[in-house]
Amino acid sequence: MTQSGSQRPGSMPSPARYGFSDVQRAETQLRAAGWWSDSGPVAEAERVVSALSRAPDPDLALHSVERLREAVGMTWPELSAELVTDKGLRGRLFATLGVSGAFADHLVAHPGDWRRLRTGCRQNMRDVDEYTSVLLESVGARGSGVPGTPGGPVASLQGKAATSALRAAYRGLLLEVAAADLAAVVEPGVASTTYEQVASSLSDLAVAALRAALSVAAAELSEDDSVARLAVIAMGKCGGRELNYVSDVDVVFVAESEEDVAPATRLASMMMRVAGTAFFEVDAALRPEGKAGALVRTLDGHLSYYRRWARTWEFQALLKARPVAGDGDLGMRYLEAVQPLVWTAAERQDFVSDVRSMRRRVEEHVPPEHAEREIKLGRGGLRDVEFAVQLLQMVHGRSDDSVRTSATVEALRKLGDNGYVARTDAADLADSYRFLRILEHRLQLRRLRRTHLLPGSDDANARHVLAKSVGLRSSGRKDAGAVLLTEFRRHSNRVRRLHEKLFYRPLLEAVAKVPSAALRLTTDAAVDRLSALGYTSPEGALRHIGAITAGVSRRASIQGTLLPMLLDLLAETPDPDGGLLAYRKVSEALAETPWYLRLLRDEGAVAERLAVLLGTSKLVPELLVRAPEVLRLLSDVSALAGRNPREVADSLRSAVSRHGDPERAVAAARSLRRHEMLRVACADLLGLMKPEAVFRALSSVWAAVLEAALDASVREVARRPEWAGGGLPPARIAVIGMGRLGGAELGYGSDADVMFVCEPAEHVEESMALRFATTVVEQIRRLLGKPSLDPPLEVDIELRPEGRSGALVRTLDSYLNYYQRWAKVWEAQALLRARPVAGDEDLGERFCRSIATIRYPRGGLDGANIREIRRIKARVDAERLPRGADPTTHTKLGRGGLADVEWTLQLLQLRHADEFPELRTTSTVEGLRAAMGVGVLAESDADELIAAWMLAMRARNAVMLVRGKSGDQLPKQTRELIAVAAALGYPTGVDTGEVLDDYLRVTRRARAVVERIFYEESPGVS
């Protein structure tokens, strides 16, 4: 838009509208150039003024153009003609002069260099050979061959004349790079360059400068010194072809032989002086022993040092080593010799922690007042990216040649492509790295000085100019400088977040500990390693490994990264072979789950915990393939172990209520129960949940499933025409939990002992209500009893009146009538654990209140009933123990087992609960503590019984977890018993004899208490 088009009627046009700050000076200069009139920009020069307005600093650009014109000796019309017709020249010249006062000074001192910026003068950036040729020509070097080697070109200029010529030629070439880099900021239509292209060109120019300096150095030394065989190895950013505009160039010098060391040292020293005067400082501090070490060493000298003395950071530095000048053959031999050392450095003790310590030390050296503005060394700066990438490369590059690249952005792409880093993380990190490097470039261009510090808040103009130089403009009420600060913080925060995610990933330490040979997983040595780790079938393990890592997909690559670590982790579990097989099955089942491998790779705790679970339990992998979402919880302890059972139950009931069809409703309930059972099992095995919390959680989810099945069945049955209730149920139904469900003490393989009580709805006959309720109960049993791969959902109603021959459902009055007239003492005993768990709450509570006198008999038990209970218990001990079972290790019916403890407590409750209401609890542990509290059980006896009951319950659960199926007998097979011990919390390597001794000791003491309290005390003795 022209100035006149944007001007209010009657107002005077002003250069301020075009971004000029010193308006009066700008108008004077624009008028002198013939580009401005009273009505604003002159029509013929509007393109020029508009281009100037887009320069990062229009005032600096205009002033520098005026200086240039005077230095060149052109008239304004002559210069205007060039600028109006050549869009590329406008873009390159104004952008460069609008950023860099240093380049303005160069152009004034060397007026002819402005022609380099004309369109057509340089269509593309030069390559390293072209740069070298230009620099050599500037010092009159002629001839073919490699500079600084016998027969190579030697400069004809020496001393100050040579360095002055080199400086001018180098600065002119640097101007070309900067102009191509910046042009699109001013003229968007001009071909733009990427950060990678600019960094590569700067690196190539630096290499050419080293070669030219070597040529001049050879000319200034004696013939004996100049022909010494010397290789110059670029390190750091020059080695990685990602150099800045202004930077030291890190190098290492290598001599061919001991005889060459002395002359090569003189040649290297002279080269450094020439380069330092003409171009940049050449820093050789990365050499062996640093600044205290010899400047030049032979190849053997380097290798001897690296093999014996080098520290971790020195191998990290060698990642970017690249021969760039001098004897090329010697340089390549150096590279080939040191590379194997780089790719085994990760196996050094404390390698990962050393690299992390180095990063922390670098960060600590940033002055606090600069921390928020430091682009390179601070938190979220360039070093965060580089350290993370280099650590990942050195760990994973041992077995994967594709990540052995020296450029940071390219390395990130390779790490992402091969699965070592999430693609999105790699792309985000690369994007932020480019932004920070471009920002660094623009900062250095201002005065061509080395800096990595953003302008402070007191220099708003500098921030504004810097923002425009990277293509940022004002946005809304935000000045461009404020936009820049927002962008800088966004990128630095992202860098820091990803740095901490990748740099401190536990996977790195685990993989680093695995020897390089084992990383390949297919060598003969791998069989020996697997055998040494404890795999009983290493050949079978290799087959699993081959199946998991087959192909060239990204998935296979990630598996190849994970498996060495997982093999070590599984080796520490009771069943490494079974764990690896389980991992294969889980991986195959979740092959199309996009987040599965990413989670294992990025969350080290998940991989470690999964290995423990798979190498210990058969139940967990069986559930995991059907409830994979639980895997995500392994990264969050609170989510895994801290869920409230009531909230879980409410969530289950809410989710199931959305399904009108009972089949679907129960299927949804099964799915949610599977999820919850797996969650609890994982937390249990990892030692994150207390046993009582496990029992409550399993009981709660079982009750929620019953509630869901009841609700769905009632809704469906009530809609059937035979009830003629318009969908209203003719009866209320309550589910009474019995046994361990009533006590909220279920295990993984427990049935649900229940009774169903109903009550007719208003104006409904009892017979109809009973038929309805019976139909509902039959449907519940059918739905829940369907075959499933999950642990069974068996509803056991044999504790109902009259047992198997009795009605499935009774009314409250019917139950009371039965109990008052016909109930036997064992039925009163069974009612001690009765608790409403589902259905109509009011009905359930009334049921429990109504049976109080039955289960808590007034005056306690008489002698006959006590003897009857003892007789029944003796019969159970004699007849119910399975044939061949070991009574000492049977958790349910064995000596000191669950039945012993529970019957003892129940006898105490029947005898004393009428007198002591504290005993009226359905929980075994709470009941024993209450018995101790009211004085009917000694404290030591209560402790023995609680310890035995808890151990038996935990052991029973452990058997289920280990085998994947329920069982009451401790296993006799050694490996299974070791796994049970692990599930019980015993340390790795515990002797199975110790485990059995502990179990026998605890249950033997409990049995002694049972025999004294249950069998020996006479009626009426408390």
UniProtKB/TrEMBL annotation:
Gene3D superfamilies: Beta Polymerase, domain 2, Nucleotidyltransferases domain 2. SUPFAM superfamilies: Nucleotidyltransferase, Nucleotidyltransferase substrate binding subunit/domain. It is an enzyme of class 2 (transferase). Residues 161-336, 608-848 form the Glutamate-ammonia ligase adenylyltransferase repeated domain. Coiled coil: none annotated. Residues 515-1022 are annotated as: Adenylyl transferase. Residues 1-507 are annotated as: Adenylyl removase. InterPro entries: GlnE, GlnE_rpt_dom, NT_sf, PII_UdlTrfase/GS_AdlTrfase. This is Bifunctional glutamine synthetase adenylyltransferase/adenylyl-removing enzyme. It comes from Haloactinomyces albus. The gene is glnE.
